[in-house]
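User: Predict the structure for this protein chain, please.
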Amino acid sequence: MFDSALDNIQALGPVFAACWVLTIVFTLWKPQRYFNSLLLLFTILVSMIFLAGFFGEGSGLILAICFVLIMIALFLVPLMLILNGIRMIRKESVCATHLLSLGLGIVIGIGEIATVIYVLSFYDSIRLNGGDNWLLLFILTVFYFSFLVLSFVIYSLFIQFMPHRYNFNYVIIHGCGLADGKHLTRLLANRVDKAMEVYRKCREKPVLIPSGGRGDDEKLSEAQAMKNYLLEHGIPEKDILPEDGSKTTEENLINSKALIDARKGPKKTALVSSNYHVYRCLRLARKAGLPCTGIGADVALYYWPSALIREFIAVFLTKRFLIWALLGYLVFVSPLLYELLN
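Assistant: Here is the predicted structure, written as structure tokens:
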């Protein structure tokens, strides 16, 4: 039996290696592709099966333990989202975006409770009175969209570890609002600090482009506030090129690209934003026709879940992604829908 397990490991070895090679190549080539997140999840699954095989006769037990741990993690997800939502409201304020974590946690929690009820119904512990197919549709819906969120979150973390060379000509710094209308928030200061770190690692110093306009409640533009911060930390003014006309992330990139295109010389570009924001920035940069490398700045841990949910929703609501996601959903539940409608 042990020899048979070893044979299975050897058979899966090329698939294991090929999956990781493809995942890394596609991520480095086109990091903004959502397909990469699905490929990464598949690669992780293959890796679990492959590595479990090294335990010989205990491989089945290892896989069972992995499955149990995954299920425990899944049931902890809604609890963590709900607790995070409550904490965000206490630390920040009550608004629609800060309620996303709380709301998603409640929906996923209901879906997981429904899953338990559905499973118990097969053992006649609970009678569903003919509503089992509609319950199953709800379960599959929660599972499908939870899968999309999970793949997005894992991939957003994964791309932070992709290697890149520090030989940029331009570094775009994305703005995100000011405190008291004139000072950098901790979130924005982290972005500028990260950009300065990149600047100092480059052999030939790049031009820093702090990007962000002036909001209605701000006394100066985000670009000017970032420039002041850069000057205070020893960055020469000649290496700072503010972009102060943008109001959105997409405008940050479009306007910054215009500044870069107007200048001569090589144009290898990096964009710096909060790590949860990098993936969407890369998608928008591709749309703007701006090839660049995404570099993430650290954020407070409690801020991550809600921030990533906001980022996922922003990506999900783009026309192309929404169409493909809904088509995938219809294919996923089509057998059940056919049974319910006939």
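Residues 59-91 form the longest helix (33 residues).
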